[in-house]
Give the backbone structure.
Amino acid sequence: MNLRKSIITAAMSAACLLPSLCASAQEGMTPYSKYGYGILNDQATSAQRSMGGVGYAMASGRQVNVMNPASYAAIDSITFLFDMGITMSKLWSSETDTQGARHNEQEFGGGLNYVTMQFPVAKNMGMALGLVPFSSVGYSFSNSISNGSEARSGEGGLNWLFAGYSIRPVKGLSAGVNFGYLFGTVINDTYVYTNNGSQTLFETQVEVRDYHLQFGIQYGYDINRDNRVTAGLTFSPGKTLLGHAWGLNYDMTQTSNKADTVGYTSLRHKYTLPAVWGAGINWQWREKLMAEVDFTYSPWSDAKFPDIDSEKQTLEFSDRWKLAVGAQYTPKSRGSYLQRVTYRGGGFYENSYIKVLGNTIKEYGASIGLGLPAPAGKTLINFGVEWRHRQASPNSLIKEDYINITLGINFNERWFYKNKIR
């Protein structure tokens, strides 16, 4: 009972704090996040990130899988799941300037990443609630201009507060939906310092307040007693966004420092999100070994994102696709402690939606992790380490390498079980 109260308290506290923490927590700082809505997040938990970020075909009643809402029906009738994760990041970046000199920088980032929970509704029905990051923005850099210098910085991002429901109408087949509220603000600042002493700040803000949907199905088939194959498919429809965008101009040399609004527009019919398709195939051998391959596709080249001060100019995006593979192995679920530890690994390759000066952004990486059982019960402490590399192509522009350390606590409690008096 004390553990249950502690989880409830932690959930309520995290739910109150996460909106501000999600907006400020950054997995490193990257100038590439200044384009569009920032660096996108696929809503993978710490355990899934240790497996390359797979999850479309994962149907486990022991962990929350936001990547495919159809998975919620896999939970049994007496289990309550609560999962929260944090991330710590270290970034190394390098860039060669026009004179051939190489510049290297290091940055740190991180913070509370997500909070989710899942519980049964009825037989073959499950539900999930949570708050997860949708995108993040964080960067800071400076450069010289003809009559002085300029400094650019950005922060913010979009968060997704969701509720999901899933049902299994027939054996092996489940379907679900995530319905949520997409909110957040992307802020980009440009400071201009001229040689004659003037200082000017131009700030743009994109504020999103809208709903967001995701649909999913999964079908599992038992090949034999030991082997099971599951296929998963998800779809998020494209939509125009609701909210506002504006540009502000500050003359920093004036004592009043009053801002002039140089551009203002509604997001409707001007700023859009494209549809997102996700597909995966999962193979499980007994309760020991699981492996999955996922593919994500989103036609971002059709998305709209105009400049705030000139709606005639629109940022150019690339179609996004991502291939991810991952696996986990548990030697013996009822053996010694080391035998009950879950060992994970995976990797991915992504063609980002961001496009810079005609160059597309490529990203790839690998990850490993452990699922460490708590001393009592089915609770797992998920620890993972990711390496990611990001650069533009065909011109490399800025090269970035990340080390992300993820830590998640997956509480697994039997809250709906009634002890019988004998």
In short: Confidence is low (pLDDT under 50) at residues 6-15, 19-25. Residues 365 and 388 are 4 Å apart (CA to CA). DSSP finds three helices and 19 strands in the chain.
